[in-house]
Write the structure tokens for this entry.
Amino acid sequence: MKTALAIRHVPFEDLGSFAAVLAEAGFAVTYLEAGLDDLQAVAPLAPDLLVVLGGPIGAYEEDAYPFLRHELALLERRLAAGRPTLGICLGCQLMARALGARVYPGPRKEIGWAPLQLTEAGRRSCLASLAETPVLHWHGDTFDLPAGATRLASTPLYANQAFAWGEAALGLQFHLEVTAQGLERWFIGHACEIGATAGLSVVQLRADTARWAPRLAQQGPACLRQWLQQLYAASGGTR
């Protein structure tokens, strides 16, 4: 059985709808809790797939969160070897930094459901079906596009929303994995951030979630399935 290792930064930002896709694809999933589990003990190339999930900290805050140094070192080794790696939100930003790009605060927070603008490469990628589907954004940081990476998606506020690097690495700053039920935990866990963000409310987020989450529940997992199929097709099934 193939192995997938997911690094989680807060308990409620988990694999969501992606968990079932990985199970269907024959992956045994293990979580490591950043800040609690020893990331230095992980053999960087051992998991068949590494997924680095989101969280409410900055990819540049290693002085406050020393485990980020180990997480970045793990990603550096992993990416250099071309091993399958998926980063979501903070995970995407950590991937960008591990590839030598700058990560920094954006002009303002982007929280809520909004559409993507796919690049030409994005329209040929596993994200193609998202051209008409709003996705969940929940971030205040951004990153420069790493050298050698291909931009896949943007929004008016943030030019770099998704990128591919090589044949086996995908970074998504937005959330395709969320579910309507799972987001109820986000609304509690991120209550302070929601309350401090002008024009944002749980009532509106819940209403938008009720409108858009059912569509994403189909298209988010479909994107992951397609990426995995492309990943293993490109390697002849040997990754």
